[in-house]
Design brief:
Blueprint: E1 5-13, E2 16-21, E3 24-29, E4 41-45, E5 48-52, H1 55-68
Antiparallel strand pairs: 1-2, 1-4, 2-3, 4-5
């Protein structure tokens, strides 16, 4: 089974970004993402950002999280 995790970019250095997943920080490769920016939400798998989330996707995730909390 593969697991991808949503995260927010909190620091950016060329092709590496520090991401935050529920407050835990980790460095990942963002070379697969077109124009990564601070504050972007990305989907992380195996140390790589593989998809940049649209704001509507982030809002949907937050709704799901709050409904299941």
């Amino acid at each position: 089974m593969c697991l991808a995790v949503p995260a927010r970019i909190v620091e950016l250095r060329e092709t590496t970004a520090t991401i935050s997943v529920d407050g835990a920080l980790r460095d990942v490769d963002v070379s697969l993402i077109e124009e990564p920016r601070l504050g972007d939400y990305v989907l992380i798998h195996a140390g790589f950002a593989i998809h940049k989330w649209e704001q509507s996707e982030v809002e949907e995730l937050e709704e799901i999280r709050s409904a299941t909390a």
